[in-house]
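Structure, all two chains, one model.
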Amino acid sequence: MARLLVQLKLRLLVNALRASTGARVAFILSTLLALMIAVGVFYLLAMLPGGIAAADLTTVIFCMFALAWLILPLVVFGLDGTLDPATLALYPLRTRPLAVGLLAASATGAWPAATLIGLLGVTIGLARGAARTSPPCCSSRSSRCTRASSRSCRNWPPRAR
Amino acid sequence: MGEPAIAVTGLRRSFGPKEAVAGIDLEIAAGSLAGLVGPNGAGKTTSLSMMTGLLRPDGGRILINGLDVWADPPAAKAIIGVVPAEARLFERLSGEELLEYAGRLRGMPAGEARSRAKQLLDVLDLAEDAKRLVADYSTGMRKKAMLGCALIHNPSALFLDEPLEGVDPVSADVIRRLLTRFVGSGSTVLFSSHVMELVEQVCDHVTIIDKGRIVATGTTDEVRGGKTLQRAFIDLVGSRANDEEVLSWLGSSSS
């Protein structure tokens, strides 16, 4: 079911592009912008120096994406090959495969891909940042010392009051 | 006449305080071409939506070939075809693709769906427009395309809401012939319409509903009782022509 709905969505997209030049231009521009954002955000997140400020900035970037996805689909329209669930109401589709299929279909497209790629930059940023901010005691001590307990690491050895 | 193909008992549905369908009992035999007529707002569309698993009834039961529609809507949808009044189609598919996807969404293999789509488009006189987008279709063409989508899995019962509304006579004739042929093979059709002449001509079973209730049901001859169906309908539902005094100025060109 998911495969069929993704195929259907792509077919709708291709036909929309075939139908008008305006749609083609909009699609190309939108894809280029998505690509730029994907590369830009990936680079930014990957290159952030470690530390509290970097963690805050990452949080802000993730929140911006979440907000944008909440609001922009409502106000920006145009090239929209979205499958309308009401159109599918006539077909004998069970709720679960339908929900999975619609999710898969809505994740198909330049912007969902750009979001995924861009935000994946955090994996590199996190790895580098973690390596840099880990208190030295962590590397010398056993693996018992995790990130969660890094604050107590920093205060090690405890000072006498 | 064996077990009825469509059996409805005590069907009810309200929208707020307004009772749109107030308890309908209806039995339609397999192989019959049944008409559902009634004035605007009588509850035709509401009834059909409930029978086809699109609108949950407040009460009552619908059996199609013995299958309880609201016990398992997807199972019921698998054996019926529906042509709703308001077309919700994938506008950006060509006619050919629309029918093919209609088949595949019903679990048919792609090859089978494609060959049936082609045959249906031929019969529906849409072969020349098969490659055009549905968005560019006229009302009649859209209705025919929807009928194709509703028939591609060879349903045992077909429901149509105002199938000939806004359709030109040529397309109407194509639709009418296809429906007649379809019931000839033992399948069942139930459709709603305003057009009494049409219902009188093609239907062997007629049901008249008004204000959410059935006022007459039976074979076409029983219901019209020697009169034209139009006359019988007006007599049953009540003519609302009491405006002669009020509109005395209308059409008076002398003053």
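The radius of gyration of chain B is 20 Å.
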